[in-house]
Specification:
Elements (H helix, E strand, L loop, with lengths): L1 E9 L4 H16 L4 E9 L11 E2 H9 L3 H17 L11 E2 L3 H12 L3 H14 L7 H10 L4 H9 L1 H16 L7 E4 L3 E4 L4 H15 L1
Parallel strand pairs: 1-2
Antiparallel strand pairs: 1-5, 3-4, 5-6
Helix pairs in contact: 1-9, 4-5, 4-7, 4-8, 5-6, 6-7
InterPro entries: DSBA-like_thioredoxin_dom, Thioredoxin-like_sf
Organism: Vibrio panuliri
Protein name: Disulfide bond formation protein DsbA
Length: 215
């Protein structure tokens, strides 16, 4: 059994991050007798200037990318189907909003030291994409944090501590300087990069190649 370090750079409101990680999990399940994954999540804010109240998702996509209502509907249908293939339920609605994710990332950074980062990331994805919850709302974030076993009072401090906000910004800058400009970006053993939600087969091949290089 070989241990492979996997760094996942993502944003909580990125649907392709859900798809990419889901496919990575499927690849790992195919190799579960050979590989143990050591997974670390890292912040990447797609919309760092987004106000806390957020913005209607379809309006945001139209403004940022010029996405038409027809293209948006098609993309939602595609994502919903791809989600089913990895066992994840996307629940897109016309009222769905996109939110600022800085404080969510602050919690994720802290959760790593508590051994709860992976559970929190999964809970945040579910809260936003399946339950359509406001993951910029502090009470919502605290509820999600406690649901995975994190201490509520400490989580409240982390959310409101500017030092944690600066840590998120610093980490994001480091990834930008490393050449990461889009997510998901998944790095194996700190040197092999897969960008985007690639196929299960590509992830399997990468994992096998990395293990072979370990000798």
């Amino acid at each position: 059994m070989k241990t492979v370090r996997i760094d996942v750079v993502s944003d909580v409101v990125c649907p392709w991050c859900v798809i990419g990680f889901g496919r990575l999990k499927q690849a790992l399940s195919k190799l579960e007798q050979e590989i143990k994954a050591d997974i670390h999540w890292h912040p990447f804010e797609l919309n760092p200037a987004m106000p806390l109240q957020g913005q209607n998702l379809r309006e945001h996509l139209a403004e940022k990318y010029g996405t038409t209502p027809q293209a948006s509907a098609s993309a939602r249908a595609t994502l919903t189907q791809l989600g089913r293939e990895i066992g994840f339920e996307f629940h897109f609605t016309d009222e769905m909003r996109i939110y600022n994710t800085r404080q969510a990332h602050q919690l994720l950074l802290w959760a790593q030291s508590e051994g709860k980062q992976h559970a929190l990331q999964a809970a945040l994805f579910h809260a936003y994409f399946t339950e359509n919850r406001n993951i910029a709302d502090q009470s919502t974030l605290l509820d999600i944090a406690t649901s995975v076993g994190l201490d509520s009072s400490t989580a409240d401090v982390v959310i409101n501590d500017n030092a944690w906000a600066q840590s998120v910004a610093k980490t994001e800058q480091q990834w930008l300087e490393a050449g990461i400009s889009a997510v998901p970006a998944i790095v194996f053993e700190q040197k092999h990069l897969i960008s985007g939600a690639q196929s299960v087969e590509i992830f399997v091949q990468m994992l096998q190649d990395v293990v072979a290089q370990q000798g």
